[in-house]
Write a sequence for this structure.
């Protein structure tokens, strides 16, 4: 019996690749390079495939789907985001789409806290000069993340308040954060009763939905954790940054396109906020050591490693593989993004 061809654009590791390669009904075409699979290779190898495993950097559009042909049943992305996929086009052609939510929640929440600490406590600046510096009482001082006698009330602000944001809030509670403000999709109506339940769940005095202007003014740390896409493009702009406290820290672990890089650079140079911690920057992965934000004062930039733990990446790979297999053979997918035709 002929096998079902699948294209896998990244090696999913020793725990997961055998699941695909040893499957009796699959013919696996695997990208063998260390760098991400390029567009040319993908378009050359996708014709006739029944399924594909892709990354956030791979554009799934009409050109890709035309090249694949009528056999294609499922596209499985190793990411929680899906702005790289033309969902209406997939729905029109009856192609299922799998993604990897939930499994990376804790890893990204951990990194969000790490970036808040690194940015506020000048980790970049101290590592660049140590051990060749002269100690002074107030050298490299920055705002303390945790509550103190001087600042007994700490306020966390969230642009987007989904699973990762709430996991981040849970990690902030032991630091003494007692207020949580968040902004959400304008199409979603406010729900004060649900907010009150979340406040009780996490043991904080207040969880409240506010507009972005109030969130910017009141927050000691702002965590950007909304989805990417046109509706959130540059949602953190000059107007927002100008309203932040000059002691506040901005953390972005979602998508680089949510933050206007030019405005953030200006804000850091002019001291509108204290610092920024970024796991994502607009234009990635083409971010070099000469990028203005990499060189900016009090700005920590990491190369999009939010999900980079052994546990999380293996979990994402396994979920993507199972989405692919089940999508091809008509079984319920563990994490299928439901699309309307």
């Amino acid at each position: 019996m002929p096998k079902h061809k699948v294209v896998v654009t990244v090696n999913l590791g020793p725990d997961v690749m055998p699941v695909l390669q040893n499957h009796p009904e699959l013919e696996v075409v695997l990208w063998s390079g260390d760098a991400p699979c390029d567009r040319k290779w993908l378009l050359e190898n996708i014709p006739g495939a029944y399924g594909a495993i892709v990354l956030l950097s791979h554009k799934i559009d009409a050109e890709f789907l035309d090249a694949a042909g009528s056999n294609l049943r499922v596209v499985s992305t190793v990411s929680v985001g899906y702005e790289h996929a033309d969902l209406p086009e997939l729905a029109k052609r009856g192609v299922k789409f799998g993604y990897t939510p939930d499994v990376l929640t804790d890893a990204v929440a951990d990194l969000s806290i790490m970036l808040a600490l690194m940015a506020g406590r000048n980790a970049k600046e101290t590592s660049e000069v140590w051990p060749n510096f002269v100690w002074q009482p107030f050298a490299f001082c920055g705002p303390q993340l945790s509550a103190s006698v001087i600042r007994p009330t700490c306020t966390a602000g969230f642009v987007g308040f989904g699973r990762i944001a709430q996991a981040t809030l849970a990690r902030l509670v032991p630091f003494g954060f007692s207020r949580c403000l968040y902004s959400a999709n304008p199409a979603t109506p406010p729900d004060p009763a649900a907010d009150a339940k979340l406040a009780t769940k996490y043991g904080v005095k207040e969880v409240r939905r506010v507009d972005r202007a109030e969130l910017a003014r009141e927050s000691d740390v702002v965590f950007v954790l909304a989805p990417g896409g046109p509706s959130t493009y540059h949602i953190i702009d000059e107007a927002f940054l100008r309203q932040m406290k000059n002691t506040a820290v901005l953390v972005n672990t979602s998508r680089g396109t949510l933050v206007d890089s030019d405005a953030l650079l200006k804000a850091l140079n002019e001291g509108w906020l204290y610092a920024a911690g970024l796991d994502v920057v607009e234009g990635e992965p083409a971010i070099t050591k000469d990028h203005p934000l990499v060189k900016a004062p009090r700005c920590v930039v990491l190369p999009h490693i939010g999900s980079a733990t052994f546990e999380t990446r293996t979990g994402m790979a396994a979920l993507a593989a199972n989405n692919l297999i089940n999508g091809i053979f008509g079984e319920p997918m563990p994490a299928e993004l439901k699309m309307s035709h």
Summary: The mean pLDDT is 95. The CA atoms of residues 9 and 31 lie 5 Å apart.
